[in-house]
Design brief:
Strand content: 15-25%
Distance between the termini: 38 Å
Radius of gyration: 15 Å
Number of helices: 5
Mean pLDDT: 80
Structural class: alpha/beta
Largest sheet: 5 strands, parallel
Low-confidence stretches: 1-7, 22-33
Shape: globular
Helix content: 25-40%
Strand order of the largest sheet: 3-2-1-4-5
Length: about 140
């Protein structure tokens, strides 16, 4: 079995549908000009998000295209931990990020009570979602 990089199954399947190998020494993008294929945005940049960001930055087919957090301190800390994100647009409203950036996938690292809202909005925007547990906090969600 190949040694897969730290990328979700949904992202890997998305990449394969677009002609990108996601494992092995010959990993490369074989599409048009853009050398990146999977456009990932982060909703919530504090805590564990930095680890996800570092893992995503190690995958050649992934490009971080947007960051969202209500805290400027969290955004700055995330950018310091991950590196190379100086030109990435930053938002304090997740819906603006989804509407303007239109990412292929979203990593959600917000407080648990906001997961459901962010997951639903991201899926409605057509993005794949990677979210830590719990997905919801109440039965109604």
């Amino acid at each position: 079995m190949p040694n897969f990089p730290p990328i979700s199954v949904a992202l890997r399947l998305h990449a394969r549908r677009r002609g990108v190998r996601t494992y092995g020494p010959e990993c490369h993008y074989n599409g048009p000009m853009d050398p990146y294929n999977i456009r990932v945005a982060f909703i919530g940049c504090g805590g564990f998000a930095g680890r996800h960001g570092r893992h995503m930055s190690e995958i050649s087919e992934v490009r971080v295209v947007g960051l969202c957090d209500v805290s400027e301190v969290s955004l700055a800390s995330f950018c310091d931990r991950v590196g190379g994100l100086d030109d990435v647009p930053r938002y304090d409203d997740h819906q603006k990020l989804l509407d303007q950036v239109r990412p292929d996938a979203v990593v959600i690292c917000t407080p648990h009570t906001l997961h459901c809202q962010h997951i639903v909005s991201s899926l409605e925007a057509g993005a794949h979602v990677l979210c830590q547990k719990p997905m919801v906090c109440t039965r109604a969600d």
